[in-house]
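Bumping my old thread because nobody answered last time. Still need a sequence for this structure:
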């Protein structure tokens, strides 16, 4: 059984994971609107992944005998200047998520909550991958900066992303 405080903090993280999903879906929508169908696919897969993160946290809260409580979400941004700015925003957002997960881990250490520490390790590793994926896309797009052809080719590349 985890503490009420820990359950509350993980509930907050569930909402943030759903917001992440919402943000990536907004990016997918804007990418599709601008004809970047590969990026739209990439962002849609990420939207699905974020929902899985939320549900993974939710199952943990329930397995630990607490109730999952959903909260209102802020509206995501809906317009980006291009796909480079989109991936830059995604990276900034993932860095925030990494910091929140680190805060949860710090709390789990303080509470000597070994089960939550163990559960969080998957997310700590996942965040390394999320940041690396964004960094990779950003540096690829920076290499073709200003070139419409290059950006188009990169968009096609992003569209080859496989689901998990
Ligand atoms: Mg996530």
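Sorry it took so long. Here it is:
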């Amino acid at each position: 059984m985890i503490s009420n405080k820990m359950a509350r903090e993980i509930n907050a993280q569930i909402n943030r994971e759903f917001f992440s999903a919402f943000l990536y879906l907004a990016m997918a929508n804007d990418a599709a609107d601008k004809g970047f169908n590969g990026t739209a696919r990439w962002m849609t897969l990420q939207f699905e992944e974020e929902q899985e993160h939320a549900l993974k946290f939710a199952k943990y809260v329930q397995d630990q005998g607490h109730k999952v409580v959903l909260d209102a979400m802020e509206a995501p941004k809906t317009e980006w200047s291009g796909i480079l700015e989109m991936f830059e925003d995604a990276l900034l957002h993932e860095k925030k998520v990494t910091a929140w997960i680190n805060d949860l881990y710090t709390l789990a250490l303080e509470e000597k909550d070994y089960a939550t520490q163990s559960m969080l390790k998957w997310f700590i590793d996942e965040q390394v991958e999320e940041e690396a994926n964004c960094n990779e896309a950003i540096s690829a797009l920076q290499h073709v900066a200003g070139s419409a052809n290059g950006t188009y080719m990169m968009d096609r590349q992003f569209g080859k992303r496989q689901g998990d």
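The chain has five helices and no strands. Let me know if any region looks off to you.
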